[in-house]
Every structure is written in structure tokens, then in C-alpha cells.
Amino acid sequence: MPNSARVQFRPLSPAWGRVEVDTRRHPRSRGVTGVAIGGMGYNPAMHPLIGRDDPAPFVILHEHGTAPALVICDHASRAFPRAMNRLGLPELAGWQHIAWDIGAGELARGLSHALDAPAVLAGYSRLVVDCNRNPEDPEAFRRESDGWVIPGNASLGEFERRLRLGCFFDPYHEAIAAMLAGFRRREVVPMVVSVHTFTPEMAGQARPWHVGVLWDQDEASARRLMEGLRAVEGLVVGDNEPYSGKHPSDYTIDHHAEQAGLPHVCIEVRQDTLDSPAGVERWVRLLARLLRDLVADTSLRCLRDPELPWRPANPR
Predict the structure, then answer these.
(1) pTM of the model
(2) Is residue 119 within 8 Å of residue 58, measured between CB atoms?
(3) Is the pLDDT at 40 greater than 80, yes or no?
(4) Looking at the domain assignment, is residue 304 inside a domain?
(5) 8 Å CB contact between 158 and 141
(6) How far, in Å, CA of 239 to CA of 242, rounded?
(7) Tell me, what's the pLDDT at 45?
(8) DSSP characters for the chain?
(9) 272-281 pLDDT per residue, tens
């Protein structure tokens, strides 16, 4: 790999992202970390499902990164609030792909550092609530996943659903909206980079792709990224595989990027290629090199319709 593609890993900055102490008890006067708790510090009345020793509902990295890009990761975490007792699942299930996109959080963190781009990562398992689904979608609160029955989701009422949305879903999406609003105030059009991973097989069928690029309305950015990936010898690249960006379940990109007319790419990496630190670093190096080219190209990194104003996403 040429020197220009090497990634220098740096330790996480504790100033604005998730740190060892509970930042909710020490609110900052600026930044968006406080969006999770309304800017008022830890308040159990506002987020009663999140205990003082539980993680925050989102993590922000490189809030003041210089790159005109925002990395997002909907399924970065396998965490459950302690009081939820893993929704009645055994610990083994919490480590499997039903709970999170294995390796996606590490990849998103690596890209954030390599690009010096801000990133927003969801703080809880997709089984608590799937942040990449419309809240009205039955898959937002799965009762079953890949053969596992989810006891804690079996009989959710409307009140319980709304409570989870308010504690986990809304803070994450508010954080994304706040970061995009910062770009808008600076009159910078960001490239939104969504990071996911997929299993090597599903329903007994092997998935041959090492990586997939999902797209719907921003075909140009997707094509440029796929062109760069396909130049790598031996790499099998999926075009809207193993999932399709045209599927309506792709909530985060639809809500924050497509509705606003922002450029974006959605990347899916096969999980068995991320099962070691070396594997994660290889993907970070490759994707960071290709994404730098996309971000630098203002013919791609522009509003889809320059005649229309930037349209921020409406709150849920």
C-alpha cells in the first residue's frame, strides 16, 4: 500500500465522545453531546430507561473534524440498558449479529480518525430499537431475529415503544441532525458515509461479496466508490448487494441525506473480513483512500438539486 494510503491510528479524544466517566453528569456549554439528554445533564425523568452506569444513547467522535464528511453507524453497539436484562436473551445472543453489525463500530471509528471527520455512532443494540428503521416499521422492535425469539419485545405496548424511541432512537437521530446543522451553518455540504456490515451467509446461502455499496438517489457517488473498490484485485463488490439502498427500510440515509438532497454513500462490509484488528485496518486504509477522493470532488459533494435550498430533516 503506498505511503499516502497509510492510516495513522490515534487514541480516542475524550473531549466530546464517549469517555470512561459519565459525561451526562458534566454537561458542556457547547457541542452536541448534550443532545442526548436535552442539554440539561443526566436526567432520569427524561430518559428513565437509561441508568447512571449505562452508556449514552450515542457517541460522537471528532466533533470538530476538518473533513467535509459525516460518518454514521446505526448498529455500532451491542449494549443493553442494565435494567432491561438483555431483553431476556442469553449472553451469547448479545454477541451475535442479531444484536449489532459486528465490526461496524470499529470500522466507523477508524474511518473517522483516518479522514478527520466527525462521526455519530448509536449507543445501543438494534434489538432495543433499530435506529435504521422507521419507528412505524415492525422491524424497529424485532420479536424474532435469525431464529432467536426476543422475549423483551414480545408484547410491547404503545407506551413502551414510545419510551424506547424517546430514550434511544430520538437522541441518536437528533445528534446526526445537530452535526449536519453545523455543516449547514458553515455553508459546507458534507458527504454522509453510512457504515454497516453483513454476515458471510444468510438463511444457508453464502454471500460472495466482500463489500457492497447500497444506493438509491445518489448513484454517482456510489458508482465512483464501486469503481475504486473494483480496481482492487480479488475484491468482490456488490452493487446494491447484499441489500438494496432502494428498500424503504434504509431509514437513516433516507431521513437525513436523501430528504436534504445531500451526497452520501452506504457501505456494507462482510463481517468475516473484519474479525481481527488487521482486517479492520486494511478496510480503513482502503475505504479512507477512496472516500478522500469522493469528498474532494465537489461535482459529487454537492446538493443534489442546487436550485433548491438545503432541506434539514424533519424531527420524528
Answers:
(1) 0.85
(2) no
(3) no
(4) no
(5) no
(6) 8
(7) 66
(8) --GGG-----PPPTTTS--SS-GGGS--SSSSGGGGGTTSS--TTTSTTS-TTSPPSEEEE-TT-SSSEEEEETT------GGGGGGG--HHHHHSTTTS-TTHHHHHHHHHHHHT--EEEE-S-TTT--TTS-TTSGGGG-SEETTEE-GGGTT--HHHHHHHIIIIIHHHHHHHHHHHHHHHHTT--PEEEEEEEE-SEETTEE---SEEEE-SS-HHHHHHHHHHHHTSTT--EEES-SS-TTSTT-HHIIIIIITTT--EEEEEEEGGGGSSHHHHHHHHHHHHHHHHHHHH-TTTSS-SSTTS---PPPP-
(9) 999 999 999 9
Give yes or no for residue 309 having a pLDDT over 90: no
| Domain limits for position 75 | 24-296
**Grid cell for residue 200:** 458471510
Helices 277-296 & 104-115, crossing angle to 10 degrees?
Answer: 50
pLDDT tens by residue, 193-246: 999 999 999 878 899 999 999 999 999 999 999 999 999 999 999 999 999 998
Residue 205 lies in a domain: yes
The position carrying cell 463489500 is 211
Residue pair 252/173 in contact by the 8 Å Cβ criterion: yes
- 302 domain residue, yes or no: no
Alpha-carbon dihedral of residues 185, 186, 188, 192, nearest 10 degrees?
-60
- CA-based nearest residue to 16, from 71, 67, 62, 72: 62
CA dist 44 to 28, 62, 254, 315, Å? Answer: 18, 27, 31, 22
Number of structural domains found in the chain: 1
What is the four-CA torsion angle of 100, 102, 108, 110, rounded to 10 degrees? 150
Residue 272 lies in a domain: yes
Percent of the chain with pLDDT strictly greater than 90: 74
The domain that contains 254 carries what CATH number? 3.40.630.40
- Taking all residues of the chain, what is their mean pLDDT, rounded to a whole number? 86
Look at the block and give the residue holding cell 443493553.
Answer: 80
